[in-house]
Structure formats: C-alpha cells, structure tokens
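Researcher: I need the complex structure. Ligand is 2'-deoxyguanosine-5'-monophosphate. Inputs:
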Amino acid sequence: MSTKECIFCKIIRGESEGYIVFEDDISLAFLDIRPLNPGHCLLVPKEHYETLMDIPEELIGPLFKNAKLISRAIELGLAVQGIFVGINNRVSQSVPHLHIHIVPRNKNDGLKGFFWPRYSYKDRETILEIQDKIKKAIERLLV
Ligand code: DGP
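Model: Output:
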C-alpha cells in the first residue's frame, strides 16, 4: 500500500480527522475509531512501516518511550486500573501501518486476557522443541 492511500498516513498529514492526543517528531497518537474501551489509543510512527519487524532499530526506543508516556497519561487521565499494549503484525492487522494499541483496562471490563482462547502445550517435549527452534533462530539473527 502506498502512503498516499494509507489511512494512518492521511491522519499524520492532517488530511483525515484524527482525535490526536500526542505528537512528536517521530510519532503520532490518536483515539482508535472503534475502541475496545473508551480512551483506546493508537501510537504510530510518522514514517510508513508496515510491521514491528520493518522499523529501524533507532526508532524502537523513542517509540516505546512514547508508548510508556501515553500509557501513564491514560492511567492518570482516565483513572483506570491498568493498560493493555499490543501490536498486530500482518495477521489480524487491518491497517498496514504499524500501530501500537494502548488500551485502558479495568478489572471485569469484559475483555478477556489476550482476547482469544489459550491452550496448553501437549507435553514437555513439545515445549523444549519450540524453545530450541526460537533460541536457534535468535542465534542466527544475532550473528
Ligand atoms: P488492527 O486490527 O490491529 O489493525 O487495528 C486497527 C485499528 O485501527 C482498529 O482498532 C480500528 C482503527 N481504525 C481503522 N480505521 C481508522 C480510522 O480511520 N481512524 C481511526 N482513528 N482509527 C481507525
């Protein structure tokens, strides 16, 4: 998708309405139009990157610093008990411009954990196999 058509790029450029709550040189945060709870914000980098895996390393620190600021502001401003922070990457990602969901939470607010069912590993062998695959992939990526 080109940045011309991207709905979040349009909000960043001021061409579409966004109820903006925060802006700095690298990012913008605005209210999600279909919130899980009132005050649900989306924090986006101003540059168009599709997923977390695509953004340059130097953006990660500043972006997550802003995620922390907005989380603290939601807690303080809306007097909620907690915050969920999450990112859909490709699967379940309806807007292909990286966005960090920052969702106000209260106990018994109707949202259940990760919003989808959990399951248990079949056995310890399966756990160790998956652990090993991820560890080996990390080793490959770090060389
Ligand atoms: P996801 O499903 O993780 O890709 O989340 C995309 C979110 O973006 C979804 O919660 C709804 C929100 N959204 C989609 N279009 C717009 C829009 O035009 N404006 C705003 N503020 N939010 C939008």
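Model: Summary of the prediction. The pocket of 2'-deoxyguanosine-5'-monophosphate is lined by residues 7, 18, 30-34, 42, 88, 92-95 (CB under 6 Å).
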